[in-house]
Design a protein that fits this description.
The protein has a single domain, classed as Rossmann fold. Helices cover 42% and strands 21% of the residues. The strands form two sheets. The protein has a seven-stranded mixed β-sheet, sandwiched between helices. Helix 3 packs antiparallel against helix 5, helix 4 packs parallel to helix 5 and helix 7 packs parallel to helix 8. The relative contact order is 0.12. Belongs to the class I-like SAM-binding methyltransferase superfamily. Cation-dependent O-methyltransferase family. One of its GO terms (biological process) is methylation. InterPro entries: Cation-dep_OMT (IPR050362), SAM-dependent_MTases_sf (IPR029063), SAM_O-MeTrfase (IPR002935).
């Protein structure tokens, strides 16, 4: 079943997301954000990890992902950067009957954890888990003749690799499909001219490139840490 991502779960959320709005407003938003029981368990368990809990997409992001995937009536999807599986649960659950999510993750430990959550949610039959470098996995899909064979892609992995992932996903996703990219505000660093580390500069370069890319219709949505929604023309 589904319920709200209520304030009782707020401790399991990234402080970076909560800081974007007054706490009372964010708790109201969570109370109106649908979240499945298995997804809530995944998020709460991930929050207990000694590191990496801030790598999860936020509940409201995942709710939006579900709406986007369902709106497309998607059957084939890709996720680059699965971590413990929280966003993958939303995507896999929203796929049409017989649909498959190719889930790319470079950490064997994280992917093993994610597979457990897929089984808990009853969506493991919809997930094709791929361990290894995502660039190689996506190249393999292209080499197998799957250009234009996917409806949806979600990129949430190493930021300095975004440009390569984006180009690969644009080839794999059909015209009319969506490529969605996370962390485009990068905790506010992209808008802060005093920040000039390599990861922030890479995210700025990606944002500028996607904004100007005439192969897509583009919107940078201020949900979670900022999501670029790219409709493939």
């Amino acid at each position: 079943g589904e319920g709200p991502a209520t304030a009782s779960n707020a401790a399991a959320l990234s402080a970076a997301f909560e800081a974007r709005r007054p706490q009372r407003e964010y708790e109201y938003l969570l109370a109106h954000t649908r979240e499945g029981e298995a997804a809530a368990r995944c998020r709460e368990e991930t929050a207990q990890r000694p590191r990496g809990a801030n790598m999860l997409s936020s509940p409201e992001q995942c709710a939006l992902l579900r709406v986007l995937v369902r709106s497309l009536r998607a059957k084939r999807a890709i996720e680059v950067g699965v971590f413990t599986g929280y966003s993958a649960l939303a995507i896999a659950d929203a796929l049409e009957e017989g649909g498959v999510l190719v889930a790319c993750e470079k950490s064997g430990e994280a992917l093993e954890t994610a597979v457990g959550h897929f089984e808990d949610a009853g969506v493991s039959h919809r997930v094709d888990a791929r361990l290894g470098a995502a660039v190689e996995t996506l190249d393999g899909l292209l080499d197998a003749g799957e250009e234009g064979a996917y409806d949806f892609a979600y990129i949430d992995a190493d930021k300095r690799g975004y440009m390569a992932y984006y180009e690969q996903c644009l080839r794999l996703v059909r015209p009319g499909g969506l490529v969605v990219v996370d962390n485009c505000l990068w905790y506010g660093k992209c808008a802060d001219p005093s920040v000039d580390d390599k990861t922030t500069e890479a995210m700025r370069a990606f944002n500028d490139f996607a904004f100007a890319d005439e192969r897509v219709d583009y919107s940078l949505v201020p949900v979670g840490d900022g999501m670029a929604v790219c409709h493939v023309r």
